[in-house]
Amino acid sequence: MNTKDLAYFKALVEKRNYTSVAKAFNVSQPTITQAVKRLEREFKDELVHVDRTHSQTEITRAGLLLYEKASAITANLNLAHQEIENAKLSRIRFGLPPIIGSLYFPSLAGQLLKNRLLQRLNVVETGSGGLLTAVKEGTIDIALLASVLPLHDPLLNVKHLGSRPFVIVVSRQHRLANQNNVYFKELANEEFIMLNYKFVHPKAFKAFSQFAGVNPPIIYKTPDILWITSLVKENLGISLLVHDVISPADKESLACLTILDPLPERFNISIVTWQGYILTADEKRFIKVLKQLKISQNGDYQN
């Protein structure tokens, strides 16, 4: 079977017009017609019915079944092309969220440099949500991701490294600053400054809000953690962040409150690859180094 025939057929189902498909692929209309006929011979069934009376192109049930499979085949072929091209370049396409990149990854930099892997990295730095999509689409091959619950996805290989707690961060000037802990329902009327949708924090915020039966207002969203901590220091709002974001120096002007609500949501950190992806020798060595990053369940991270 010719993969081009599948591509022509897939486009015909979507456009329902032979001329439009021919123009899109810069081929003649008979080329599209012959491709459909070859597929019909292959599957011994009519795939496309042309109603010349009403000038309509109708897709049969068999055609619609083939279209579903053709879409999956085309997607997998595109992914294979990307993976093979990347293998030729001998580069490691790596996704790294800013929080993990600043808090945990630097401890591995020396070993990566020693093993001549650091200079091979093509790093994409954005929130875990965007990186998870990028892994599934094949635009990156390995990612160090955060999730509010341990990742379980049949399309992915996942190595869970550990988790860290979310905390409520307030200014030392805030009325709650002298408390060590807080129930989320006590924050119903507090104004939050939050990381945006690219990060996992909004999911944790939603889970705590729903559990507590409250809907605290979010007055500002940003992808910049330093901007959030700066605004909270000025007592312009409070935030929900992973505990390790707040450094010892920050604690002179910021307080971290333990959330008492018994939810499983935490800042889980995992190594993620696509289920069908074949690792290169360098990528295997790279993941071996990443696995040495052990995230403590209760205390500080360990390397």
Automatic annotation (TrEMBL):
<dbReference type="InterPro" id="IPR036390">
    <property type="entry name" value="WH_DNA-bd_sf"/>
</dbReference>
<keyword id="KW-0238">DNA-binding</keyword>
<protein>
    <submittedName>
        <fullName>LysR family transcriptional regulator</fullName>
    </submittedName>
</protein>
<dbReference type="InterPro" id="IPR000847">
    <property type="entry name" value="LysR_HTH_N"/>
</dbReference>
<dbReference type="InterPro" id="IPR036388">
    <property type="entry name" value="WH-like_DNA-bd_sf"/>
</dbReference>
<dbReference type="InterPro" id="IPR050950">
    <property type="entry name" value="HTH-type_LysR_regulators"/>
</dbReference>
<feature type="domain" description="HTH lysR-type">
    <location>
        <begin position="1"/>
        <end position="60"/>
    </location>
</feature>
<dbReference type="InterPro" id="IPR005119">
    <property type="entry name" value="LysR_subst-bd"/>
</dbReference>
<keyword id="KW-0805">Transcription regulation</keyword>
<dbReference type="Pfam" id="PF00126">
    <property type="entry name" value="HTH_1"/>
</dbReference>
<comment type="similarity">
    <text>Belongs to the LysR transcriptional regulatory family.</text>
</comment>
<dbReference type="Pfam" id="PF03466">
    <property type="entry name" value="LysR_substrate"/>
</dbReference>
<keyword id="KW-0804">Transcription</keyword>
